[in-house]
């Protein structure tokens, strides 16, 4: 049996955020009252969902510990990746148009 390695809390959170991020297609996007893009993200306990954006989350971890929870980390990473993707696509299309 392998000895349990101790992982520092930040690494643990990053790993947790990565597993939340992998489920991004199950997040339900919607617009908040101010028009801001929000996501309903399933919690680890069945039947729970949290309302998440890059700067806030309704989960207990965010509320009780005032920390950047795994959901916020995952949504922030997702939005960064989507922006990078869209920028790539724009550039690709521009280059293609020039090659005409
Ligand atoms: Zn959260």
Structural class call reads alpha+beta
Q: Distance N terminus to C terminus?
A: 61 Å
**Strand order, biggest sheet?**
1-2-3
Largest sheet: 3 strands, antiparallel
Q: What is the oligomeric state here?
A: single chain
Low-confidence stretches are none
How much strand?
Answer: 5-15%
Helix content: 40-55%
Explain what this protein looks like in three dimensions.
A hairpin with a 6-residue loop joins strand 2 and strand 3 (49-52). The chain has helices spanning 9-22, 60-65, 70-99, and strands at 28-31, 37-42, 49-52. The chain is 50% helix and 14% strand. Helix 1 crosses helix 3. Strands 1-2-3 form a 3-stranded antiparallel β-sheet, covered by helices on one side. It contains 3 helices and 3 strands; from the N terminus they run H-E-E-E-H-H. The chain has one domain. It is globular. By secondary structure, the chain is of the alpha+beta class. The model has no long low-confidence stretch (mean pLDDT 91). The site of zinc ion has 8 residues, from helix 2 and helix 3.
Which labels suit this protein?
100 residues, alpha+beta, 3-stranded antiparallel sheet, 3 helices, binds zinc ion
């Amino acid at each position: 049996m392998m000895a349990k390695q101790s992982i520092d809390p930040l690494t643990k959170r990053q790993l947790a955020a990565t597993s939340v991020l992998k489920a991004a297609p199950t997040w339900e996007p919607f617009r908040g009252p101010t028009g801001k893009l929000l996501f309903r993200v399933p919690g680890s306990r069945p039947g729970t969902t949290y309302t998440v954006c890059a700067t806030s989350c309704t989960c207990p971890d965010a509320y009780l510990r005032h920390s950047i929870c795994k959901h916020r980390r995952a949504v922030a990473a997702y939005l960064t990746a989507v922006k990078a993707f869209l920028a790539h696509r724009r550039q690709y299309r521009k280059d293609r148009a020039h090659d005409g």
